Amino acid sequence: MSFWSNRRVVVSGGHGFLGSFVVERLRAAGCEQIVAPRSREFNLCEKADAVRLFAEAKPDIFIHLAAVVGGIGANRKNPGRFFYENAAMGLNAIEAARQHGVEKFVCAGTICSYPKFTPVPFREEDFWNGYPEETNAPYGLAKKMLLVQLQAYREQYGLNGIYLTPVNLYGPRDNFDLETSHVIPALIRKLCDAKKSGAAEIVAWGTGKVTREFLYVADAAEAIVLAAEEYAKPDLVNLGSGNEISIRDLLEQIRQLVGYTGSVRWDPSAPDGQPRRCLDTSRAVAEFGWRAKTNLRDGLRNTIDWYTQHLLSRQSVSA
What we know:
- This protein is α/β, with parallel strands linked by helices.
- It is built from ten helices and eleven strands.
- The strands form three sheets. A six-stranded parallel beta sheet has the order 2-1-3-4-5-9, with helices on both faces.
- Helix 4 packs parallel to helix 5, helix 6 (about 185-195) packs parallel to helix 8 (about 245-260) and helix 6 crosses helix 10.
- The termini are far apart.
- The model has no long low-confidence stretch (mean pLDDT about 95).
């Protein structure tokens, strides 16, 4: 029998980008009892709703993926909201899990919690050695406090809570809204739309010199489900591909895959964000045998194909 055969699992954010892939992965692993609550039914920012969710769903395992997220622009516009709602959702869910006595609580953190000038590659030991990059610090700190809560609850109440820190995610079903999206879906949309309209130029934020690491969403989902099965320690675990790329080189890869032949104008007045991001993922390998499988070019191709089939085609119909 599968580890998941008789376990009831709640996935907060289960209808979202990462959550939908985690739900699919759980089903593939043999889990038949999955609850993916909608925020309109259970607002985890309200403690009473969190308690009611646990009382009604009665989960053995709770996977907390619900979050209010966005790119640099969204973080700059909503620092208060991103801090409060992400902190409140996590605090209430973990407290309700303690009251309910769940078997395990799995929490997804964020690379935005790392200090602005973390030595590369980012090691888990450096997680507390400085303040996060300013544009997304409220979001990063809100998620960081959930690690503190889980470790404190493990010590005092015996709650088996684990904390996973994924790097920047991308893939099919991502958010392609230019006001709130992260860098990969934003660039894909800009380049695809520019090719379709015949635009001679696109504008890209920042200098293009900063670096990022990206993890394909299906690989992240695999890691979360595997960690839920096999990992049970208080220490955070990085989830990433281990490969670093500059935003300028990333844009060039996407441009080639899209087939856009126009020019790119960089806007240095727009913020770059954290100077570098690249994770050491050796702990995930050692603790539960996980490595990312999807290389960046293949993942980008899959994401572009999904965007052109599901969103770009709809724009053509509506036009």
